[in-house]
TrEMBL record:
This is phosphoribosylglycinamide formyltransferase 1. One of its GO terms (molecular function) is phosphoribosylglycinamide formyltransferase activity. Keywords: Purine biosynthesis, Transferase. Its EC number is 2.1.2.2. GO terms for cellular component: cytoplasm. It comes from Dehalococcoides mccartyi (strain VS).
Amino acid sequence: MFELGWFSTARGKGSRNLLTAVLDSIQKGELKAKISFVFCSREPGESAETDAFFELVKSHNIPLVTFSYQKYKAKVNGSDETPGGSLPRWRLDYDSEVLKRLKPYKPQLCVLAGYMLIMGPEMCSRYNIINLHPATPWGPKGTWKEVIWELMQQKASETGAMIHLVTPELDRGPVVSYCRFSIQTDSFKPLWDDIAGRAVNEIKATEGENNALFRTIRHQGTIRELPLIVRSIKAISEERVNIRQGKITDNCGQTIPGYDLSTEIDPIIQGRE
């Protein structure tokens, strides 16, 4: 059985939805895997949303490991400021403490699902860890909001989402898998026409995220994210795509620039558009 490790800060409903999507796929037999542990960087009582997440984990009898990032930071009087933007010593020590708590488990793949901490080198070298980025491999970097504004600025032809291997450098790991979709179809054309001749900064100032084009791009990306995570785990567990020594390869051992799952995901999202 393919074993997964699950990392989350569990700040809201989205974290529960991610975990539920994978558990549902496992229960249906679509994904031949099990979640060996769930790690959370919060502890019981820190947040009502996080406590709800813990109840979900316990209801599925999954081992739960918690270690409060905020409490540890306060205990060691940690600061986030370091020269050159590298992780401070106390943050690296926090990762080491996490690894001690996870020593009994041997996951073949770990998933970051709403985990709000950057992984340090020790953590990245111990596990193969994947994370979601809300853009194509060749698309903008940054938060999902920054990505959408940049797409509008560029008048981009397409976007999507990708799963990448986690490295200490944020959003820079090799691409494992991705899906893409056009944002220049007939249904998008009236939305582009509505902002013709307007600067993105003006749209931000007047409409912000309520802009129809912004909301539609976000919706089309969001409905693909859960299927992409599930299908990526499935592809890895079936060895259609492999992570070997920090490189992504196909089932023949050839290095690839990511595995395109668009044709698998498009039928899944039909009716949600």
